[in-house]
């Protein structure tokens, strides 16, 4: 469908147009020349390519007219002007678009991150007829941003080398390489025109821009040999390179049709690279091994995007293209947090390429290179986003996001499959590693994908079966997927152990990893853990590529993952066991989905789910724990009663709960901050970030210290919570144990409270330790003070020797300090032999002595040592804090538990008609609910009719058969029964008049009828697969609901299936059933 017609805007003056030109001009793009009617010499080059046709604008009001020039261009003589047209039409989007797209959601101190970019664009877009003179540039009335003067622009990029990334055949001279204002253009077109009206007519070597109103005819399509235009309606230079499209190969020369083709790499022709400038050669060296990544390439204070990366910037970030055929855009360093977060949230990989030396450093090392060294300093993906200090304040992170690595092995019989898994939450550094056997339906894998929020999946290339791939596609459809090469990237178990030991990540190996190691030979892996360690190897390789392996693995936060149904003990899971011994209820992926525990089935959002109904926590770490409680209900009666007792005791203490919640609400995400402080405290001398030249260091340092101070304040507030709870007498064993086991943080917090001045640190971005807090800094300060004391004593000695009290030290420069300023009258008779004249003024002479020169050398060395110690003081302070990581972590866990208990108390005490469930240890399992209501509907539907449910315990049978008309509430009652049992076993009151039951070990649901197109499974197949899971894993303590079983086939066959399933469940397992 064609877009609606738009009226052609009124013609604007040249001044108005020039103020609206797009223009983040970097030294990658050639500068525009001043308009001049003089005929150029034969050796001069123009920025215009002669075309055979003129671009035209067709409007409803006018006939065909010549198109106005959209960007500043160099004028040519009159005899050639008719043959030259602008090469591109670059649309300009307003800065407000960034805010509309959520790019303005940063921390308070980052609210103006994009201001320098807007200033630069505004300043560069103005007319500047006299570049050598400083003058005020008029600013358009529709923008409130101040312009930058020419001097500021020159200073901004003076730190980078004067090397252009523009093709050498398009450069005028080296002087035009630097960023500076464009010459005043003669065109009157505005580049702020909407993109919807831009179409392109192009050939590989020529570009023709035309602006046509939607209702009129458009230019003809590009020739068949031309690639499709890039974003923005323009055919860019990189769109015409066959080796990047039709003839693309990886670095080993393999075509995409080759099974071993590596899409992450690209073979760039050598003859093409030879024609590129040295800086662009450097860009291609990085890009050709990271074709799956968007490069933010640092040049001075700006991150630049080129070619296909610039297309992404235009499409996703609303960045404008620079002038020329080469796709090119950029933004200032301070806006990195916004743009990187936006791309990562949309599934892109983002690499930050930093300058690791200055031009002065390059000259000092005697390099023949024409460009400064650059290195990848970070690689962000949805699964490896650690939220570092460069990223500012993002979030809130109410749910953990996991990087999931999977290794598969199918048994020789083909009857089952075994998986090794490794999941890591990079924001907290928590690893889950495990190995388990699964059915051919991959039920345990489905449950894992339902329990964990997987945002990135890493697998071995050619290492997964088609069935497993279908499960991953269906269960984590939004996750980014990566394939690693077997052996070199997806390590086997033996290589994983060797790499972990060689890197020295652990001072002591975590217990979770020791369980997979051989007892006799600790360097080898058990057969039962071979796949798990291989999955860990693939995860570690991926973390190394992202340059975050050291900071995450050194936390040693490893946990063993076991499928929920595997945690059941043999006695607890057997059909005849009367008492449950397992710790948690098993909820598989079908149950989590059918009961809408985490997200509703309407639009997949949190609204309307059971989690949204029950979760009233106020901290991010509390929200993450509450979700874990919801997915892991308790099975032990004593544990359930302990949680219910705590909730019941908190209900009447409403005022106290409100006070404690207000304190918790003021806390930052302490769990995330602990991992960030650990990363900042880790000594990583070889990490490229240590060599990066950053221009906003002071602001980054303030971010670090602000987070650190916020963390200390949060733990200080936790002491107030403990103090407040101690003032009340508690009878609940859980609350009493909570108070008694909360770690003692008073001494630790007192140490950091006196360690440095927080107000000064937040203002300057530097932690200056107080005396006695940092031995290394104290030694450097003492050395400086000692030398200064010697100089003072020497001054007194010279005063006495010359009998002149007016002798003083003079000088401020580092090498000329401490000159003895002596009146000429004092040395007129006899000047000491060691006095060396340095300078003089009327009536005074200034001297140095060998002693003073020796003291100056010692003082300079001591001051340098003090400066180094001061720069590293923040890291040492973070490392000192991290020494007590276990205590800090335990305190956060306690606070999360309290937050969850108070959430349950609010739901239980403030909701109408909620009652405490009664759990019974009984030989015969049963569930008795009187006037039960669905928690999600009871609060919104005023005329909801309560229902009684009685199963088991002799009074009624263990099966209930429901029938009735459509829309009668049958499915609601099925879900309601399971939901109330689940609520009771997480320790929450339930919406019913009475609830009495024995704990259940599993909840099974078989609801609805739908196929799985992505998995290639029909409706009947899905029904039978889910039913088979129930038949294979249900026990007498399981609660099962079946809704219209057999509807996926004919009535007769469906009835036979339903009858057979019910008969088997009743006579074989005898558990509670609601069909």
From TrEMBL:
<feature type="compositionally biased region" description="Low complexity">
    <location>
        <begin position="186"/>
        <end position="207"/>
    </location>
</feature>
<dbReference type="GO" id="GO:0006298">
    <property type="term" value="P:mismatch repair"/>
</dbReference>
<dbReference type="Pfam" id="PF05188">
    <property type="entry name" value="MutS_II"/>
</dbReference>
<dbReference type="InterPro" id="IPR007696">
    <property type="entry name" value="DNA_mismatch_repair_MutS_core"/>
</dbReference>
<feature type="compositionally biased region" description="Acidic residues">
    <location>
        <begin position="140"/>
        <end position="174"/>
    </location>
</feature>
<dbReference type="Pfam" id="PF01624">
    <property type="entry name" value="MutS_I"/>
</dbReference>
<dbReference type="Pfam" id="PF00488">
    <property type="entry name" value="MutS_V"/>
</dbReference>
<dbReference type="InterPro" id="IPR036187">
    <property type="entry name" value="DNA_mismatch_repair_MutS_sf"/>
</dbReference>
<feature type="compositionally biased region" description="Polar residues">
    <location>
        <begin position="39"/>
        <end position="49"/>
    </location>
</feature>
<dbReference type="Pfam" id="PF05192">
    <property type="entry name" value="MutS_III"/>
</dbReference>
<dbReference type="GO" id="GO:0005524">
    <property type="term" value="F:ATP binding"/>
</dbReference>
<feature type="compositionally biased region" description="Basic residues">
    <location>
        <begin position="1"/>
        <end position="10"/>
    </location>
</feature>
<feature type="compositionally biased region" description="Polar residues">
    <location>
        <begin position="16"/>
        <end position="26"/>
    </location>
</feature>
<keyword id="KW-0238">DNA-binding</keyword>
<dbReference type="InterPro" id="IPR017261">
    <property type="entry name" value="DNA_mismatch_repair_MutS/MSH"/>
</dbReference>
<dbReference type="InterPro" id="IPR027417">
    <property type="entry name" value="P-loop_NTPase"/>
</dbReference>
<feature type="region of interest" description="Disordered">
    <location>
        <begin position="1"/>
        <end position="236"/>
    </location>
</feature>
<keyword id="KW-0067">ATP-binding</keyword>
<comment type="similarity">
    <text>Belongs to the DNA mismatch repair MutS family.</text>
</comment>
<dbReference type="InterPro" id="IPR000432">
    <property type="entry name" value="DNA_mismatch_repair_MutS_C"/>
</dbReference>
<dbReference type="InterPro" id="IPR036678">
    <property type="entry name" value="MutS_con_dom_sf"/>
</dbReference>
<dbReference type="InterPro" id="IPR007695">
    <property type="entry name" value="DNA_mismatch_repair_MutS-lik_N"/>
</dbReference>
<protein>
    <recommendedName>
        <fullName>DNA mismatch repair proteins mutS family domain-containing protein</fullName>
    </recommendedName>
</protein>
<keyword id="KW-0234">DNA repair</keyword>
<dbReference type="InterPro" id="IPR016151">
    <property type="entry name" value="DNA_mismatch_repair_MutS_N"/>
</dbReference>
<keyword id="KW-0227">DNA damage</keyword>
<dbReference type="GO" id="GO:0030983">
    <property type="term" value="F:mismatched DNA binding"/>
</dbReference>
<keyword id="KW-0547">Nucleotide-binding</keyword>
<dbReference type="InterPro" id="IPR045076">
    <property type="entry name" value="MutS"/>
</dbReference>
<dbReference type="GO" id="GO:0032301">
    <property type="term" value="C:MutSalpha complex"/>
</dbReference>
<dbReference type="InterPro" id="IPR007860">
    <property type="entry name" value="DNA_mmatch_repair_MutS_con_dom"/>
</dbReference>
<feature type="domain" description="DNA mismatch repair proteins mutS family">
    <location>
        <begin position="1038"/>
        <end position="1054"/>
    </location>
</feature>
<feature type="compositionally biased region" description="Polar residues">
    <location>
        <begin position="72"/>
        <end position="81"/>
    </location>
</feature>
<comment type="function">
    <text>Component of the post-replicative DNA mismatch repair system (MMR).</text>
</comment>
<dbReference type="InterPro" id="IPR007861">
    <property type="entry name" value="DNA_mismatch_repair_MutS_clamp"/>
</dbReference>
<dbReference type="GO" id="GO:0140664">
    <property type="term" value="F:ATP-dependent DNA damage sensor activity"/>
</dbReference>
<dbReference type="Pfam" id="PF05190">
    <property type="entry name" value="MutS_IV"/>
</dbReference>
